[in-house]
Amino acid sequence: MQIIQPHYHAIARTAQDYERMAMSGVVAVAEPAFWAGFDRLYPETFIDYFRQISEFEPTRAAQYGIRHFCWVAVNPKEAENPVLTREVLKHFPEFFAKPTVLGVGETGLHKSTKNEIESLEAHVDLAMKHGQLVLIHTPHLADKAHGTKKVLEVLAGMKVDPERIWIDHVEEQTIRPVLEAGYWAGFTLYPITKCSPKRAVDMLEKYGTERILVNSSADWGPSDPFLLQECVIEYRRRGHSLQDAIEVFHNNPCRFLGQNPKFDIKPIRIESAEVAHA
Amino acid sequence: MLTPPQIIENYFLESRHQILEIAAMMDRYDVAVQRCGGNGAAGGPASGQKIELLRKALAIAADPKPAGDRTVALLELFATG
Fold it and tell me: Given an 8 Å threshold on Cβ–Cβ distance, is A192 in contact with B24?
C-alpha cells in the first residue's frame, strides 16, 4: 500500500529510515521546520537549516525513491526571541519560491506566551499573504487543551482560509473544536507522549476520515516513524477496506498538501484490489 | 534502588500512556456495545466476563493501600478468568 508521511523530521534520522519507509510503501514525506533541541541564536542558522531541508534532504530521500517536501518556520519554543523571529521571517519568501517548500510550519504554541502568540500571528499572516499552506503545532501533554483553544482563538481573529490550515497533534480532548472550525486535524503517533495507533483509529471511527492527516513525526527524541504503518495495520485489522486506508494514509495528504501545486502526487483508487478485499 | 520521586519521574509518562490505552479500549468496547443495540454479550458470554475482569483489575491496580502486592493480586485474578 502507498503511504504518505506528512510530518517527518528527516534530518534527525538515518538513511535506514528512508530505506525501510520505502520498503513499507512510503512514497513521500513532508518535513516541517523543527526545534533543534536548543534555542538557536542567529538568523543564519535558520537559513542554513531551511537550505538543508529544502535543497539537500530531497536528494537524500530520492536515493530511496521517496519524494521529500518541507515547510519553514521558527519553532514556537524559540519565539521568546522576537528579534530573531522577525529577522528569520524576512527570509521566508525566498524559500516559498523553492520547488519543494509547501508553506509555513510548524509554527504554533508551546507555553502559549505573549511572544509565542505574536510569532504565530506573524507566521500565519505571512503565509496568507503569500498564499502558503500552514502547519500549526499544538502543545504537549498538560498544556494541550489550553494551547489548542488559544490557537483557535488566534486564528479566529485573523483572515484565514481554514481549509489551508492543518492543526497538528490533536487528541481526543481537542479534535472536535478543530474540525468544527473547518481546519484539517493531524494525529501524531508517538511511542508514549502523544497519540497511539489504536487511539488514532478510534478517532477515525468516531469522527470520520474527512480532513484528517495521520503522521508519526519522528525526530531526535523517542519516536518511531513506523507507528504510521502500525496505524495502517490497526485500521485494516478492524475491517476497514484497503481503499479506505488509502483514503486516510495516502489520499488525504494528497488533498491537503496538493493545495500547493508543488505537491503533485494525486489521490489513487485501486479498483481491482478494492473488489478483491471488499 | 530508586527514590519515590525518581519512580514517578521515570515512569509517569509511560504509565499515563498505558492508562490511556486501557481507557481507549474501554471506550471502544462501549461504542461496540452501542453498535450492537446495547447487547454486550453479542460476541458471546466470555467477552462480558472478560470486561468485568478488567474492571476488577483496574480497581485493584488503583487501590492506594492494598493488603499485598497488586501484581500478585492481579495475576491471581486473571487466573480465575
Answer: no
Residues of chain A with C-beta less than 8 angstroms from the C-beta of B19: none
Interatomic CA distance for residues A52 and A58, integer angstroms: 9
A199 contacts B16? CB cut-off 8 A: no
Could you give the strand order of the β-sheet that contains A26-31, starting from the edge strand earlier in sequence? Answer: A3-5, A26-31, A67-72, A101-108, A133-137, A165-167, A184-188, A212-215
Q: With respect to CATH, is domain A3-277 assigned 3.20.20.140? A: yes
Asked if A205 lies within 8 A of B31 by C-beta distance, the reply is: yes
ipTM: 0.91
Q: How far apart are CA A204 and CA A31, in angstroms?
A: 24
Q: How far is A202 from chain B (nearest CA, A)?
A: 7
User: Mean pLDDT for each consecutive 10-residue tract of chain A (278 residues)?
Assistant: 97 96 98 96 98 98 98 95 97 98 96 96 98 96 93 97 97 97 98 95 98 94 95 98 97 98 97 59
- DSSP-derived secondary structure letter, A70: E
Contact A199 B14 (CB under 8 A): no
Distance CA A112, CA A143 (A): 8
